[in-house]
Write a structure and sequence with these properties.
- With about 140 residues, this protein is of the alpha+beta class.
- The chain has a single domain, classed as Nucleoside Triphosphate Pyrophosphohydrolase (Alpha-Beta Complex).
- The chain has three helices and seven strands.
- Strands 1, 2, 3, 4, 5, 6 and 7 form a seven-stranded mixed sheet that branches.
- The chain is globular and about 45 Å long.
- It starts with a strand and ends with a helix.
Length: about 140
Amino acid sequence: MRQRNCAGGVVFLKDRVFLLRNDKGEWVLPKGVIREGELASEVALNRVRHEAGLDAKILAPAGETCYEFFSISRRAPISNRIDWFIMQAENERYQINKNDGFQDGGFYTTGEAEDRITYSQDRALARLAYEKYLAFQQA
């Protein structure tokens, strides 16, 4: 099985988290593949900017998730390992990158996000990241 290392951002603005709806109709967090020589934090910031048009800063690591899927184009199973970062958006302005197949997106309250996020481990990640984010806001 081919292993891919990825990085992404759980981006907050006040009490809301940013989500994207991809071309499969799945609600996801922005993320991308780490290429050789790149840092996970740089990839996460770049993917948030590229996919969502958001300027954000990293506050802390959020954790890691893993999942497997079958790549039709590669005709092989793939294992994705994603390093996540808690981020804070600079402002509310975003622009969904429809050229990359994203159909929709925006900031949602944590309750709305839990109802929308497609994958259970991403829901759990967003919930835990929000608790950490709140701790940063109170510090």
